[in-house]
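Might I ask for a little of your time on a matter of protein folding? Here, with my thanks, is the record as I have it:
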Amino acid sequence: MAREISLADVPGLIGLVLGVSEWILVDQQMIDRFADATLDHQFIHVDPARAAAESPFGGTIAHGFLTLSLMSAMNFACLPTIREQTMGLNYGFDKIRFMSPVKSGRRVRGHFTLSDARFRGAGMLMTTYDVSVEIENEKKPALTASWITIVQFDPKDRPPEV
């Protein structure tokens, strides 16, 4: 996939995998910092000894929302930029499923398939990505999601055919 595309290219890319990110290590330090930021210090996330003894995971696991939040970094690292874009916004999710826990010390990466793209208003393109966050060497993904974003652009740059 090209690193840069135009607005006019986007409709023709629906149904295609537009990016697969690099691996991101989810280590205990990252999990602990996320726990501090979100005030979620449940032992399955921050207490390796107790999580090993009392949970079915054999140690600590990342917060589901930590894995979800990493999609932003994955997105920026692997999706092509739209030449005419002036700003991008996170619009939300239609569906998120946490399929498998990410154990501390594991690596994850995102797969992004463009499932929909609709021009809205004079200077907006709403895109929907089907995203799967893979855990290295595991069959089941950490999560799947339908992620909606908005690409803003100068109305003068809107392709004439849409």
